[in-house]
Amino acid sequence: MDIQAKIKETVTSNPVVLYMKGNPKFPQCGFSNLATQVLDACEAKYIAIDVLQDQAIREGIKEYANWPTIPQLYVSGEFVGGSDIIRAMYESGELQTLLAGAK
After folding, report:
1. For residue 1, pLDDT beyond 80
2. How far apart are CA 2 and CA 36, in angstroms?
3. 68 preceded by cis ω (within 30°)?
4. How far apart are CA 48 and CA 92, in angstroms?
5. What is the pLDDT of residue 103?
6. pLDDT per position as a tens digit, 57-93
7. Angle, nearest 10°, between helix axes 83-92 and 30-41?
8. Angle ∠(19,64,102) on CA atoms, nearest 5
9. For 52-71, b where at least 16 C-beta lie within 10 A, e where not — what string?
């Protein structure tokens, strides 16, 4: 299975997926830390993929969403955005609504 197919399978078979640097207990960058804090504040159930563990995923995820930075949040198989977008959506209440409908 090529890396794009692997990423697609992950984001479409899990309601909420966060591609990040590090893991939720030990984020490896401030942006990934912010993303996990926002998701935790929403009490979201999500899986986290540490892109630092696999160079192919680290590069492949940027191509998959045509988005150059990490973290990247996917909800119900759709790309949501990075940490700035996640924070803005949280502040407006839009993220909580999106996560409540995740499937």
Report:
1. no
2. 28
3. no
4. 24
5. 82
6. 999 999 999 999 999 999 999 999 999 999 999 999 9
7. 30
8. 55
9. eeeeebbebbbebbeeeebb
